[in-house]
Request: fold
Amino acid sequence: MASSVFEEYETIDLFASWDSKKQPVIQLNNLKKWFPVSQQSLLFSKVISNIKAVDGVQLFINKGETLGLVGESGCGKSTTARVTVKLEEPTEGSVYFKGVDIFQPMTKEEELVIKRQLQMVFQDPYSSLNPRKMVLDIIKEPFDIHFPDMLYEEKESRVLEILAKVGLEDYHALRYPHEFSGGQRQRIGIARALAIHPEVVLLDEPVSALDVSVQAQILNLLHDLQKELNLTFMFIAHDLSVIKHVSDRVAVMYLGKIMELSPTGDLFRKTAHPYTVSLLSAIPRPDPRIKMDRILLEGDVPSPIDPPPGCPFNPRCWKAQEICSQKSPTLDEIRPNHYCACFFPEI
Amino acid sequence: MSEKKPLLEIQDIYTQFFTESGVVEALDGVSFDVTAGEPVGIVGESGCGKTVTGHSILRILPKNGKTIKGKIIYKGINLLNLTHNQMRSIRGKEIAMIFQDPMTSLNPIFRVDDQMTEVISLHRKVNKKEALDIAIEMLESVGLSDAEKRIHDYPHQFSGGMRQRILIARALALQPSLLIADEPTTALDVTIQAQVLEIIKEMQKKLGLAMMLITHNLGVVAEITKRVHIFYGGRVVESGPTEDVFINPQHPYTRALFDSIPSIEKDKTRLETIPGNVPRLINPPKGCRFHPRCKYATEICSRERPEDVWLGPKRRVACHHYEELDLDVDEETMRERVKIKEEV
Ligand SMILES: Nc1ncnc2c1ncn2[C@@H]1O[C@H](COP(=O)(O)OP(=O)(O)OP(=O)(O)O)[C@@H](O)[C@H]1O
Ligand SMILES: Nc1ncnc2c1ncn2[C@@H]1O[C@H](COP(=O)(O)OP(=O)(O)OP(=O)(O)O)[C@@H](O)[C@H]1O
Ligand code: SF4
Ligand code: SF4
Ligand SMILES: [Mg+2]
Ligand SMILES: [Mg+2]
Reply:
């Protein structure tokens, strides 16, 4: 099934064997991304340890859904996203996109097809847009890369079309990023990612830098565009209220691993993993009458350079037993569609 | 000072910045008070004047900024009339501030002990050894384990949450009457934020501290404060007991703000939005500064500034049309609403 919009430009069909009803759009298998830390000496440098940013992520995303990925700073969310859209190579493990292993050897053309259909919107609406380029050129750039043969007029009209979809005007095309507010810049970033009709969009904290009144505008916009363009989203955030609002399913990440993965309702009402329990209880509720029974965790998140043996949460977990520091719990299905990596889940 | 008199009274202050592109009308007639021992929230979106309020009180505005009008009465004295020397004895000792950016507030090249004992011996009549003891005691009370050893470390050797605890300890070591905490947990992860909020709550109660908690996080305000002032575009648009403002907001902006945040408790597919952006404060909107974004705005709103309307001794709203909005929900419905929220 080639994407019909660009049929005349994109002729190869990589995904003929993919069955969207039975297979997920994205499947991450034991994904690892380690960053080597090396020691420099006069003659050579040697790797002394690794930052285990992503350390065995198991995850899938179904067509048309929004998977929320939540976790505290440094747990590996952005790195997972960057590997998933092939901006970086994994250290180990694989990424399947519509049934195709995206890191297997392939031709330039095949790689372009994959990269067009996997787009990312970046966290910071201030630094992610080239300040020296007009909005028109920023949004046109993906067309230049993926469809060099497309006529300039067509590119331009497609840019204007997507600008209108994200709620900006024609004349905005001729302006520069600094002339826009944070919310408008985020709209431009979204327009750039969606212009070339991707299948999957990875949204890396798309609203974290925005004021709440503007955040609501962007969340609604994303919701509308997803329906209209039939998109699959991975939505990264550290704010659980935002995650709950946007997601069909949620994955909770901690120290490079997925702790819990379940439909949104179950995650909040039938919370299984102790880490998720503590995350939920930590959120200050905007209602003075709600008094939380809060579970206060001891200490900080350990360093990903030397993660604790066994379950990564064991040094802070109030339920930890001896086995927790000896063996790594696997992400098991504890009830239909509800996965949890813990020896003693809450049920 | 009698019990009833507020510790701090901000009366109609105007703070402006003089820039190349024009005059920034950052605070435009701001008034509110803080009672001794009371935790008060200052809430609003980016650029509404929260930090400038704190800086105006302490008179630490940059060179191009000035409070041109109004009074800041602290314990009966107008701070705006004090000399620089007199002001120096107010800062830290009477009114302490925790600044918005935790990274820049601790000097990276000095050890924590030096940074703490320096301020302590400057303001309290103690020798070096006593200053160090006070510092260690403060660090222990904010939950820094192994304080006696770790006090000799450099700031970068601590995590963000730890650094924020150190800043709280340093601010409280001088036994101020008022603490201005500017977004003390915004840079922290939620589990660490929970730890630091717990410390702040505990210290506030233990020391009977008056506190101005500046934040844009409505959850943090609900949890910590008893009274709240909602800022918009350099003005206070609504004030009152936190519970009342949250359950029964009167100003269109406050209402819209609450409706635009996603909630853990409720399932909703669509959020209410406020059109447009927060206003720039060079040539801000005339009349009510919220009028270009307000769905209730009429002609008078773009012409005349709405005066404060007092709805109770500590409850006020600044809106021409607040009475006409269908905002008043009866007690019964209110209780219902809260119960529903708690059950979900
Ligand atoms: N290029 C890199 N080189 C070395 N370390 C890296 C690199 N990129 C990320 N890391 C480290 O990997 C870990 C995970 O980083 P990542 O950015 O994926 O986290 P995150 O969950 O997105 O955090 P945040 O919420 O702060 O954005 C961190 O410890 C980070 O410092
Ligand atoms: N040094 C300055 N020069 C010119 N304008 C300034 C200066 N400092 C602050 N302002 C302006 O004053 C207004 C209020 O700023 P302030 O820092 O108080 O906002 P805030 O409410 O603390 O926002 P945030 O939540 O982003 O911290 C803003 O419009 C800001 O641009
Ligand atoms: S495996 Fe053990 S340490 Fe890990 S979350 Fe479960 S109970 Fe806690
Ligand atoms: S004064 Fe007018 S514009 Fe301002 S909040 Fe009230 S109704 Fe809206
Ligand atoms: Mg990130
Ligand atoms: Mg500020």
Remarks:
- The two ends of chain B are 47 Å apart (CA to CA).
- Chain B touches chain A through 48 residues (CB under 8 Å).
- The pocket of adenosine-5'-triphosphate (ligand 1) is lined by residues A 35, 51, 53, 71, 73-79, 238, 304 (CB under 6 Å).
